[in-house]
Every structure is written in structure tokens, then in C-alpha cells.
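Ticket 4471: requesting a sanity check on a complex prediction with iron/sulfur cluster. Repro inputs:
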Amino acid sequence: MSNWKLINKTFLYDGTFDGLLTIVFDCYCKKTFPQKIYAESNYTNNFLDDIFIIKTDYDKSERIFNGIEKNICAKALYNSYYAFLSDDNEKEINILKYICTGFDQGPKINNMLTISYVYKVINMRKQTLSECHKFKGLLRFQEIQNNLYYASIHPDHNIIEPLGHHFIKRLPMQNFIIHDKTRNLCFLYNKNEYKIIDDINIEIPDISENEQKYQELWKMFFKTIAIKERTNPRCQMQFMPKKYWKDLIEEP
Amino acid sequence: MEICDKLKILADSAKYDASCSSSGSNRKNINNGIGNGDVSGICHSWGADGRCISLLKILLSNACIYDCKYCINRCTNSVKRATFTPREIADLTINFYKRNYIEGLFLSSAVIKSPDYTMEMLIQSVSILRNEYNFNGYIHCKTIPGCSKELINQLGNLVDRLSINIELPSNDSLKLLAPQKQKTGILEPMSYVSNHIKQNKIDTNRFKNDFVPAGQTTQLIVGATPESDLKILKLSEGLYNKLSLKRVYYSAYVSVNNDKNLPTLEAPPLLRENRLYQSDWLLRFYGFKADELLDETHPNFNHILDPKCDWALRNIDKFPIEINTADYFTLLRIPGIGVISAKKIIKARREFLLDFEALKKLGVVLKRAKYFITCKGKYFNKVYKFNQNFIETNLIYQERSYLPMPEFKQLSLFEQLNPTKEDKIKCLTGSL
Ligand code: SF4
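Returned C-alpha cells:
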């Protein structure tokens, strides 16, 4: 990548993975990379930026998608995707450089941790994955109608899709909604297919007596299972920082 | 009795068991049932003691006919007694699971009526879950010492993990504190299960009815009886090597009963428990042997230095180790270098030779390691002397510079020396 040309432009795209891969395609063909890349929705206009809007092209993005797997390795695709879900505001440019260098270097790209964008991509992947793993445990469903379950979360990263898949595998016969309140995104599943939609208003009805009963039982279990002689709030807090508490049923 | 009261009593009685892991099973969700296993395990919450909550950990009953001295449920104690019906257990599990409170069930029981009767009740509970509710989540069940093999078989075909707690690390202690349990009643079913698991692995054709896919575990109580750390660690080593146990858990003894045969401890020996967990890791993942870590002249762990540092100082002639050439297991012997760091080093040095800067970039923590390594033949620049005294003094100084908080005074039961900050954090997690 050393001989690539830096062009003094700010690229805007639609914020999807396909959109980013379209940028990768264009940049790789022209051997240039932009100064900055933003999702349109995250961008606040800056007078000095020379803006260029990239239109998502599914044909291009698919070629890159398959190309990564074929010419770098499956792991690189995995890294790129999970890094893409990160909340980091420089993720796009780092992923772009990572993929393009990967096309030149092949699978050994993942060992080149002393290159800062490789390190950053791998690090972002780790952070989103670890948050996703954390929420596999910390998410709490409430039954809001017969066999319809609702959970709200406030994650740092955009993990709703991998998280949703985890629960589809686990609870295939349960209708559920996972609501990312940080981004106001909802993952809806109806025992058959799923959808991610944004900007909806969900009214949570009063919970039923049955739901109430299990919430109480859980709270009680939670309190009872701790050993008094070993009380260690610092340790509890370290694993389960306060930011997670508001969506839990139990009261740590 | 209300289900709520039962849960309170029977969770309270189950809480002393250290095991909480839900890992090791990748049971699939079949026939659109409920749940699946996650190989690496998932923690769902953390209790006020900082331990992870992953499973609905309860007893089927606490109405015990035995009289183990250390146990809160012994028949001679006057505590509230309760017994779940198998249906109640299954319903609780399913409803907690659907709400994602838990990864599955950890079911154990006091001995009611007889070992076999208790086992039958356990089997019934688990069988409602598996066969009637089509539950594919994680189930860990205790076997009852002294029950029949046929029942172990039935239970083993339903659960992911089985455990039989040895609790007391020697025959004498067992006689003294658990007079109705016999060593053979514990070890025989253990080796039976272990053989059965091995056999099952050989019969590759069977993909149905996997027998105990997540293996068996046990628990040892630390500090209720006089065994040394060496004795306990040797026992664990034997359990791993001979009976291929998946995990041995250590549980710092909490004084719940007064008995002339029991010590009175002000606080559970948490630091000792932590040292045992650390050395247990060294046995399982780092290629250490119990005899290397401790011997008759040092039968107990050092309170200031962790087991690996302690070992390294006693074997200083094996150091320094050159980062760029040492093989994987040699790297693992360096204090402060764990499995993740060792793997990173091996991967990265394929591309270029590593110096201290590169190690830092890789995220390798040098706090301890710097005293024991060279990079391209050079020592770390602040390590100007390579000898045992210098390193020991520095390590101890380093560890002690994390000054103790008053609430941790209780940890140093035997000496006035203080555990490190990491120790404090790790000590109470049970998820080490
Ligand atoms: S058998 Fe012993 S350890 Fe188990 S519940 Fe009964 S008294 Fe307690």
C-alpha cells in the first residue's frame, strides 16, 4: 500500500457493510485512499471537507466480500465484519487499509500486528465480539404477550445482528424483540424470519402476573446465591459495570 | 410450601459449591427445542460475592440423612428443610432459560431416604427437561455417593456434566468429618464415569445419547482439614491424569457449624484458594507438574509471589529465556507470560525478530516477565543485574507496592504479607 495515493477527500457512504465494501472496491481499483470516511448519518458538515458520496453497489461489494475470503482468508472477513460493527469513529479507514493490504499480503496480514491499522482492526473485532459475548449473558427477556419476549439493551457497539442470531439458534420457537436503545434499532424475530428495523416506538404493556412471578423468583435467587462471607462488590463491578444495570431484572 | 420459599432455602444450600461453569458442551438445538450449549460457556450475571452466575444452582432437597460435620445441611443441624418436586425444577429451569437468566441447570441434592432414591429424583427432573420440554441447554448434575451404577448411567446419558465432590482431600479427613461417606463410594463412581466417557469416545458411531459430553468435575474444600497444598495439588494432578477430570474446583472453607473436629476460621482462606487455582492452571495448560511447584521442603505456596514466580526464582538457572527462540512450553514458563501472550509471540516472530518495544506493542505485560527474558540477546534496560536476590527483591517490592485496603487484611491469615492487586481481583471470582 506504500505507493498508494492519498486523496484529499471525505467519503460519505450509507453506513452499511456493503457500502464500505463498495468503497474498498473503488479504492483498490484506483490505488487511492481518502482522508476520511463517514457514514452519512454520523457526519456533521464541515466547511473544509471536500465531500464525495459513494453509492452502494452490491455487485462491487459482493466481489470484495468473496475476494476477501478467497484471496486473504475467512478470518480476515470475520475481522472486517466485526470491526465494522465497532463504535470506533475511524473504523472505516482502518478497515479499508487492512483489507487492501490483505489483498497484497495474503493471510499473514493477521500476524502483522505492529502495523497500526492491522492492530486496530483486530482490536476492534475483539471489543465488539467481547461485548457481544457479554450481552449473550446479560440480556434479559420479559414476556410481554403470550410467547412474545422483549429485551432492551444499551451496547457500545452495533452488535444487535450477531446477538439476534445467537438467540434464534437458541430459542427458535420463541418470538422476540431485541431493542438496542442506544441506536434505536430493533431486531424482530417471528419463529421463521428476522428483520432489523430502526426508529420504532415500542409500548411495553404492563407485565402479566406470571412474568412478575418469575422476575421475583430470579431476583430472590440472585440475592440468595451470593456467599455473604465472600462479599466483594469491587469484583462484581469489574465484571458487571454499572452501565449494564439498567436493563437487568436483578438489582446488583 | 410456596415455590418462592423452596427456592430460597435450596439456593441458599447450594451456594457453597464453587462450580459455576457452563462450558465444554456444544449440544445443538434439535427439533426446534429450547436451548443449546455454548462451548466457551456464558456468564449471565455476577453476584455480590463477585462470582459468576451461569446456572440455576439449586439442591433438589436439603433434608439430609447424613451428618457431614462441615455441612450446613447435616441432619443434626436445625435448619429449614425443603424438597422440590422434579416438575417444579423443570418449570423453573425452563422459565429462567426463556428469559435468558441462565445457561442451564446445576442440580445437586442432599441424600434423602437413600442414595438411590435421591438419584432417581434427580433423573426424573432432568428427564422431564430433556424428554418432555425438549431442553437442549446445559445441565450439570451431581451424582450421589454410594448410588448404583445403573443410575449413574441413566443420568450420564441426559446431562452435559457430572460431578462427585470429594470435598475432603484425604481418607483420614473423610473419616473424621464425613463418617457416612466412604472413599470408595466417591472414587469408584468417578472412575466408572471416566471409563464410560472414554469408551463413548471410541464408539464413534454413536452420535445419539452422548455420555457426559462436558466431562466430570469435582470439588475439594480447602482449609477445613490439615492437608498441605502439596497434598491437595498431587491429588488434583492424579485426578486429571488418571481419571481425566475436566476441572477440580477448590472451595475455601466457610465455617458454618461448630464442631470439635472443625477449625474455627475467622474468614475463608481465599488467598490459599487462589494460589491453588493458579497452580491448577499451571498443571492443566502450562505443562507443570505438582512436584515442580511444591515439594516436602516447600509444601505450601508462597503468600506474596504467585506459584510461577516462586518456581522461577527457585529455578533461576533456567533463565533468562530468549524470546525469539524459545519454544511454546518454554515461553509459558516465564512469569507473566500466559497462553495468549505466548501464542502472540510465536505468531509475531515469524515475521520479524522481537525487541522489548515490539513485545509491548503486542500487548505482552512485562511487569514480571522483564526480569526473566532477553530479546535478541539483550536484557531489559532497567534490569541491570541478573541474579536471584535482585529479582526476588524487585518482585516482592513490586507486589507489595499495591498497598492493601483494610477490607483485604483478612486475606493474609497466616502472615502479615499482602496479596497483590491482581490477586485481590481474581481471588474472589471463582472464574479464574
Ligand atoms: S451428604 Fe453430607 S455434605 Fe451432602 S448434604 Fe448431606 S450432610 Fe451435607
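Notes from triage: The domain at 3-293 of chain B is CATH 3.20.20.70 (TIM Barrel). Leaving this open until the requester confirms.
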